Amino acid sequence: MQQQSDIIIVGGGLNGPALALALAGGGFSVTLIDALPLADLRGAAFDGRAYAIALASQRMMTALGLWPALADHAQPILDIVASDGRPGEGASPLFLHFDHHELEEGPMGYMIEDRFLRRALLQAVADHPGIKAINGRQVKAQEVAETGVTVTLDGGKRLSAGLLVGCDGRNSGTAKRAGISRVGHDYMQTALVAAIGHEKPHNGVAHQFFMPSGPLGILPLPGNVSSIVWAETCERAAYLSALDDAAFMAELRPAFGDFLGSLHLAGVRFSYDLKLSIAERFVAPRLALVGDAAHGLHPLAGQGLNLGFRDVAALAETLIMARRRGEDFATPLVLRRYQQWRRFDTSTMAIATEGINRLFSNDNPILRLGRDLGLGAVNAIPGLRRSFMRTAAGLQGELPKLMHGREI
Questions:
Q1: Res. 362: pLDDT tops 60
Q2: pTM for the structure as a whole
Q3: Assigned superfamily of 1-408
Q4: Cα 213 to chain centroid, rounded
């Protein structure tokens, strides 16, 4: 089998390009296949999409050489406030407050608009001689042999490599063609996502407001703008999505509150159905899954992209170190190391988000009292509060080198 590259990555969203850069930096030749045409993001207007990048993920961006292009567009997340309540009634007096001054490392994370993060990744991929990008082509078939894997594109072209990596989302064709099934369930919630301009400054504070129908995340962006992720029941979310902008804002205001003054819509509105979806395996012969192709969780902790970036860092380190030891980097033994590294972290985060969502997304008065007391108790215990802060910043657990800001 004549191989055109060491590794083929399917999926050109955010995890795919990041993985391509990490692997190419370690000496691998990489082919990156994206079903979408190459986007020209120069001068692109803000469309409301943004991401919470944990501190550990920011360090990876620095190690990959991306941060200089992102720093001027990043809003530090200085504090996080989590509280319980009902729309129109305000927050409970018992709440959880994370103050970045309690971390020696600095801000717990950053908010970055999609257009800037995607542009930085695409430009770095285009500039790297070890990466060949193929855009506007879909993978229609994949074949695994003892020494490598071959994919067939929709135009009939065949490409071969030592390893195939699926970064192609929750409906990953790469996983399906490998016979990897998924487990999970429907949260019966829909996330409404938008950017909201406001009269008063947010001061770099992120808010997580737990309401009976689902959590509302308010995340600071540069200027007097915040990104919202508003989880509602599917029925109510469908109603809200069908409203015009003025009516939507009228419905949002009681849930958002008036602590930032007057509000206005500052971008396009999006909606996403929320489901827990985890691949039964993260690896198969000559194949690995990364990001949403491996796991999809509830967005209430803002950890979806950060989990994907930890996959990127762990897989890159596993493969690069295996090659340096003289191993075939795509053997089951090597790939199982990646799966073992990432499986525990993913399961832990899935259990945590599942539990939090079930605990807070209801109006049971007994549970309401218990969770308010719990938030207050965690807030009152510095050691426990600091542990939660380090988890939010992505600093807990066995972190790959890239997550420490170090090259592999």
A1: no
A2: 0.91
A3: FAD/NAD(P)-binding domain (3.50.50.60)
A4: 23
